[in-house]
Structure formats: C-alpha cells, structure tokens
Amino acid sequence: MTTAVRLAEDASHPRVRVVAERRPEHSTSASAGAIWDPSYATHPDVPLWSMHTYAVLRDLETAGRPEVRLVDGVEASRREIRTPTWATNLPGFRECARAELPGGFLSGWRYRAPIVDMPAYLGYLRNRFLATGGTIEAGRFESLEQALDRSPTVINCTGIGARELVPDPAVEPIRGQLVAVRNPGVTEFFAEHTDELDEMTYLLPQGDILLLGGNADKGRDDPVPDLTVARGIIERCVAVLPEIAGAEVLGHRVGIRPQRDRIRVERVDAGRGRVVVHNYGHSGAGVSLSWGCAEAVAALALG
User: Fold this and answer.
1) pTM score, whole prediction
2) 202 labeled part of a ligand binding site
3) Number of domains making up the chain
C-alpha cells in the first residue's frame, strides 16, 4: 500500500491499480507489531531506506496522524554486543547501564522509535490511495505473465506470495505471533535485539493496547494462533515487566514474514516494452523500510 500511494501521488505516473487476494486489513501487515527497527532485513540500502521511512513516519506523527506514535524505550541483548550504528544517531539515544536492564540482558540502548498501529494505518493508506483515483480490486495471479497481460508495468509487492508467483524459492515463510493485552499503563517500549529465529521478547504500547511478542517459526505458514506459544510470550514479557502480569488478553495476531537472504528491489525487462519492478523479501522490517523502498521503486518504475 505504501508503494501504491507513492506511485499514485506522483503526477507523472498513470493510473495505479492494486490487485490483491486479501484486503489490506486481512494482510500479514495487519498483524505486525510494527516498531521501526531496520535490523531484520539485509540489503546495502537498508540504512538509506530505513532513515527515509523514519522521517516520513515522524512527519506523520507531527502532523497529528493517530496511527503513528514516537515512543521512547529500550532495545537490549542477552549478549554483550556493540550498539548498532543505526541507533546512535536517533533521537533520545544513549547507552544503558547494566542496572537499567531486565534480568538476563547484558547490553542495551535507549532511543525514540515510531510504533505504528497497523490495522488503523492500513486504513489510512487505503484511503489516501483511493483519494488519488487509484483502485483496489480482489484478485489472484498465478504468474507474472498474467499480470503483464493486464498492464505493461507490474510492481510485484507480493511478500511471501513471491515464492510461488515469481517463482523465487529464496523466499521462506517465517511465522510470527503476538498477543494483544489491555495496557495497564505502559508508556515505553522494550525490544529484544537477537539473531535467533525462534523467540524474542518485546512490549509495544499502542495507547490502550499493549502488544506482546514474539516468535519467529521458520518454515511455518499456518495463520492459526498457537496458544502454547502465546503463553510463552506472556511469560517472557512478564519476566521483563512484572507489572503486566494478569493483564486482560484482548486477542492474538499471526503473520507470515517473507524472509529472504537479501531484499529484492529490482527492475526487470519482461520484453515487448513491458516491465516488472520487484519489491519483496523484507522479512521483519517491512514497515521500517516501507517508504524508503517505495521511493526506490518509484525511481525504477518512473525512470
């Protein structure tokens, strides 16, 4: 949706049509915890794309968009690690003393990050897109050739669907789950910085809701919440912040991250004057890179 908005708002671009099997509110993005953090994707342009996205989200918050909040908090590791370079120039940055960290965490840093209420934000993007005259229709393509039969320029933002559509076997599903609870008054985020693919711990305040996470099950693409996983998430989050013990559970969210060894943002000549621009493989950093990647896609599509 971000890419569609960027293209549709460019006066030099023809009419933009989004074709998707699911509506935005039923997509993987609707299940995301959506804290800005560029750690979970690989590409040389991640620093550029992530900082561009940070600036856009910051400006939306400044403009009063309720879907985006700039929140102070801590990112921490269970190992002794150096603070990532991307964090050091962010507002509110400082290193944490060991005594400031929860038990079991050995290093950490504070900064201010955008946190996005994804169900509401997707509605905002949809309305912003439709206001340009763009259209959204339900549909499914079995191949890129089918899409090219309908338009000479195709932007492939299919996420995990790229595995079959392109096809690209380098795309792997990573199943993520989180728990939404009634927020007992938490105002700062906590995010675990880890290279592991199975479990991590994070608490993301979104007003009256507090999102608890999370997990990353490689190779799983089933969307049904696992209550055993949910209990583990709650236990880990309570260990970090005991005051949330007993918070009312409001619901469970599951999404399938499109893992790839490198994000694919690339223009491909499809022959006969037709073009495909790929934009997928963002793993757990889709929101963090969304506006930067949309800018790169626009340059490729409009160039």
Assistant:
1) 0.95
2) yes
3) 2
